[in-house]
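User: Here's a structure from my thesis project, written as structure tokens. My advisor, Dr. K., wants to see whether a designed sequence matches the one we expressed. Can you design one independently, without my sequence as a hint?
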């Protein structure tokens, strides 16, 4: 997998948890109750359209480099047994004076990736029965962490919207995320340093915006090609916002006509090798 797909996958995973989590609450107006209701309401939408404006700062050998990243997610969940989505990402790389664009699709139980013409497909993580227990365990653990953070969150209201910031234990979150790794031979590891998420709930009770501030390190990278110049350990700081747009409206999700021609992989692309690709 390519380097930014690791970040993309993590952001998508966090967004999925924040829009699908099911938490309980007794207090009618605390952050936990507001989030519970908003997550359930947002998660019940048949269509999701999200746009993001993020900045990934890459640090290596005492040098830092800004990597502006734009993402758009269009999802059709009318068939609860077959989520269809298209995530497009554009990454600007100053050192290459150019941008890299790639696409991730999901349909019929498969995840398809098209990165600079390299087209691959693999069973989606949710369809891998051998990984199902790890996925369920990770989601349950993260829901418990969110529950505790929401208990301590303060609500700020403005213009009919409610906002609260979750200061999450990054190390624990990333440990749970690592359980989704399907490659037992990979030596690449992630370590969370900081993870703050500010949730904005609109006047109709939907999650409207997520502001991210997270820092993590990646170690154990192969050191050939371009990666030899960067080293085997990299630090990332990702900041910016993810906004849900066209909330409650029907949208289209366009899939390529050539998905059947994508090359099969025996297993889902390894999350631990996601910083290969462009950096190699």
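Assistant: Designed independently from the structure alone:
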């Amino acid at each position: 997998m390519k380097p930014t797909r690791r970040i993309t996958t993590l952001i998508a995973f966090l967004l999925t948890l924040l829009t699908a989590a099911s938490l309980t609450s007794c207090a009618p107006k605390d952050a936990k109750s507001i989030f519970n209701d908003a997550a359930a309401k947002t998660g019940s939408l048949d269509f999701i359209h999200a746009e993001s404006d993020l900045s990934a700062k890459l640090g290596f050998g005492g040098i830092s480099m800004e990597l502006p990243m734009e993402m758009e997610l269009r999802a059709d969940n009318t068939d609860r047994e077959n989520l269809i989505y298209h995530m497009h990402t554009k990454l600007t790389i100053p050192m290459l004076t150019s941008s890299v664009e790639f696409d991730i699709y999901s349909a019929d139980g498969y995840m398809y990736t098209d990165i600079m013409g390299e087209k691959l497909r693999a069973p989606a993580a949710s369809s891998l029965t051998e990984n199902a227990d790890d996925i369920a365990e990770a989601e349950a653990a993260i829901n418990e962490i969110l529950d505790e953070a929401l208990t301590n969150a303060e609500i700020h209201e403005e213009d009919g919207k409610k906002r609260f910031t979750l200061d999450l234990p990054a190390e624990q979150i990333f440990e749970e995320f690592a359980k989704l790794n399907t490659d037992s031979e990979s030596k690449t590891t992630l370590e969370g340093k900081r993870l703050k998420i500010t949730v904005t709930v609109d006047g109709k009770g939907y999650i409207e915006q997520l502001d991210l501030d997270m820092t993590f390190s990646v170690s154990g990278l192969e050191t050939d090609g371009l990666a030899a110049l960067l080293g085997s350990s990299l630090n990332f700081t990702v900041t910016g916002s993810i906004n849900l747009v066209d909330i409650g409206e029907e949208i289209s999700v366009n899939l390529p006509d050539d998905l059947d021609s994508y090359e099969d992989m025996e297993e889902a692309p390894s999350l631990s090798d996601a910083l290969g690709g462009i950096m190699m």
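When you compare it with your expressed construct, this may help: Confidence is low (pLDDT under 50) at residues 1-5, 22-28, 268-280.
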